[in-house]
Amino acid sequence: MKYIKALPLSILLCFFFTDSVFSQVGIGTTSPSAHLEVDVSSDVNLPALELNTQAVPTGSAEGQLAVIGDATNGYKLYMYDDVRDKWLSVEVFVLPFGRNGNVDNTPMKTAGNVTNNRVGYRMPFNGTIIHATVRTNDNSGAQAKQFDIQVRTGNANISSTPITTAAAEATNTALNVDFSAGNYINVRINNDGNVNVNNPVVTLWVKWRQ
Fold it and tell me: Fewer C-beta neighbours within 10 Å, C or N terminus of the chain?
């Protein structure tokens, strides 16, 4: 009878302590400092984590991770971007553009001081432009000026995305401009009716896309 009386108490205790038991998991440690901690400080032979490669999965939540790719283009670590609804690489690349002096209605210069509509940064993989910033001289030239972020192929625009300065600067962290492998990217100063802009610099942030 004592066993029978003790059984409900045991079940009750298990119920109350389930959250505590399973709230943190430690591998290689008995005192994890996070919900999951893998301590491999004493093992120099094996990595802490391995994600097997896979085909593009269906993303459903911000922060999901997957290693995606193929032998031709290589494998990369991607994180699902719930806002943009696509898998984007964890790594990010910066594309700088600039132009010296007072300028208007002209392409901006890329690496090697090149300025021409038919050249730009050629992309090796599919990707997405996610951020852009603009800064111009706040003591000379137009303080409000429109720039076009152009995705191009051959001598044609695939897409053109405007960004306009206010008080000589602009920031857009919500861009979602897709491009394909082989496209090239440049930036053009628009003839928007305002005066010349002085010493503009445009910076784009790019991630690879699945």
Answer: N
